[in-house]
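so i finally got all the pieces together for this one. its two components total, 783 residues if u count the protein bits. some of the lines might not be protein, just check the labels. i wanna see the whole assembly predicted at once instead of chain by chain like last time, that was a mess tbh
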Amino acid sequence: MPRAAQRRLHVLRRPKLRQSWSKYNLYNIWRQRDPKIGFTDHETFFQQKWRAKGLLRAYHGEHIKERDWERMFSRRLLSVANMNPRYMAENDGSEMAAGRGSGRDIVSKWKQDTVEPKTITPYMNMAFAPMERRLDIAIFRAMFASSARQARHFVVHGKVKVNGKVMHYPAYKLNPGDMFQVDPDSVMFATGQPKKKGGSSARQAITNPQDNAEAEPAAEEAEGAEAEAAEATEASEMPEQDPETTDKPEAPKADMKPTRQAIQKLTKQAKSILARDRDVSTSQKQNLRSFLKRAKPLLSKAGRSTATPTDILDELNSMVKELNLSDAPAETAAAAAAAETPSTPEQAVAAAARQEPPRSIEDLNADELKALQRLIKEEEENPADPTKPYHTPWKPRDYMSPFAFVPQYLEVNQNVCSAVYLRHPVARVGSAEVPTPFGYQINQLAFNWYLRRR
Amino acid sequence: MPPRIPTKSSASSASALVRSSFASPCTSQCLPSCRAGFSTTPSRERSTNLRRAFLQWTRTIGANYRQPKPEGGPNYISNARSSALQPFPLNAQFRSSRVLDEQARELIWEKVMRQGETLKAVSAELGVDLTRVAAVVRLKEVEKDWISKGKKLATPYSKAVLSMLPTKSFRPGVQNQPLEPINELHIHTATQKQLFWPTAESRQFTREDAAKAFHAKMLSADKRVPHPELIQMEKNLLRGMSPDDARARFINAAEQSERKAAEKQMKKAMAEEQATKKVNTKRFEFRFKEVDSELVGKDGRAPNVVGWKYGMPHYDRKKGLVKIPTSVP
């Protein structure tokens, strides 16, 4: 999409409404006045349709090529009628034969001052209904991403599963009954507040191992304990799960993240040492290069599901020993030592005990105890974790609430960041399910534009 | 032209240039002194009237939308004519619908999975669409699975989002207001045309007859709605049956229909199983099916026939053709 990539998504001058939670977009929606297309006769019908289509296409899938949308477009607009069981039990349909063939006429009340207009079924607001079937747009509608483009990014990067299988086509059209799941971390990154620039960002954590060494083991210890608890529960009661509702049971996965990080850190340091060429001898450089060469397969090995942290650590240790650098690798060795710590939970528990000063719980009264328990629970649910790419404890991003709605054709469970596409969006008397920023007339003109055979 | 005496700033930048050619890249960064101009006031940021208006908006009206409402509930942008549940001020025909809250979802799961009630009965009792009831149970199962596996739920996200949405909760054991209409009939394309269908004036032209008039195979609206059992229940009530009896019959009928559907599905799966011969090897499971090579259609090009047909192009690997899956089983 070179065309769209060059152009800015949100602008203040000649604004377009977008599928995005940006504050600029909110402002643009707020100040958008009715474009009043077709109210005067200074525009031809073609011009009216062209302008209406332009307004709506900027919102509905602006990242989708026009040709693709034209293929997707359908002139068949879906709708439903509410059938009251009581009425159906009382009447068998023959009452409609009365009058002129559509039921007995309703007597007009000519004496009334005003006549209530009949509520229409806004079929025309369904013009962009086929777009809502697309996986990326459904993810945006389920509030798992802050824009349709971000949703597309998630799909392309393998963060999204459809019916338990990774689906990397954003253009996949959901079928009624499809369940899609988005990686919770990505969702929380998309919908959470960004990390503060001055705070401990992930990038900073990589470049400054000394600072990181203190924070990391505690978090990793917690993860390890969690994994162990999960194993215990699995052993005691294997949950009977319907294979349709869940993924197949995964083997308890050893947490390879610390090991992988250690390898990445070591390779990075080795590279930086190589770059600072003056204080490293030729033989040391050769050693470092061979180390880098061997670290690459080790890194991919750590990513595999069969790898265990201890094996990888052993290999890494032997590699560091072989490196045999007298002065340069002081930090390298330190990093290796830091990588070893999470493998033994006892050490980390002791470290945690050292960090927290002993406090007696007996001093607290009942209310304080309750408050403490609540605080502990909140902390457990929403911990401060510097390894996350978003601001922790998690908070919703700014200007999110005006965009918060879930259309009726989706059923979302926010806890597991999953949703089910129940059915295609429909129109009913008085409302249409397609979320579109403009009213009936504009949609009608756009629909007519796409009806044209070209 | 007078000789040009290098100023202090240009001299230092020149020396920096000289240094950068010798020193390693990490020390070659420009020193702070080299960018000192004559003015000490920082230049003003580029700003337009539009941008100023936007910033003014963020400080005044926009400030209401920055954070969710402290008391919870929807916080949509509104103008004089829009309602409270209208996310887009210009589109009155799209309203934000209520979603089930945690407790309502738990109640539905409890009723279906613990108390063994049928989906139809739960749907009719709570006024939740049939497909939604099934989806809630399915998603809740995933959630329980995550909890049993010790996977971390996105609880803070869930709490925040549910506090921003209009929600619906149910009280167990009481008659609740419905969430949405449950007995909605899909408008079939065959019924959207206008017919001229002469019949005798004396004839009772029912919904059944109307369906036949539209299409020979079309079922009547009474059979196509999601809850035909509800219509029967209402008929029973009109006939003077006691509400408890009618309710018991409805529940029974719902069970029957669900059992029937399950049996049908079972039968289909069994037939599929019997028709395939499975051969397990080390790496793959081969599945063989009997195929009649005569069933290739009139011109031998029927679209769902297996195998390669002479003279028939095979687009599976052709460049530029859409290969996005159309369904994920």
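The CA atoms of residues 77 and 88 of chain B lie 7 Å apart.
The longest strand of chain B covers residues 276-280.
anyway lmk what u think
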